[in-house]
Design a protein that fits this description.
With 42 residues, this protein is α+β, with helices and mostly antiparallel strands. The protein contains one helix and two strands; from the N terminus they run E-H-E. Helix 1 links the parallel strand 1 and strand 2. The protein is elongated and about 35 Å long.
Length: 42
């Protein structure tokens, strides 16, 4: 397994117990450097 879908509240506790290359995906939250795409209000 390469990663999991989790809530934003779960990211910090998970990062404390898993490897840094394991992917954590939080639906609806974009990375700071991501293109805003069609969402112009971002």
């Amino acid at each position: 397994m390469d990663g999991v879908v989790c809530s934003a509240q779960e990211v910090k506790p998970l990062r404390e117990i898993i490897q840094s290359d394991f992917k954590l995906v939080t639906p609806g939250i974009r990375p700071a450097d991501a293109d805003a795409g069609i969402r112009s209000e971002l």
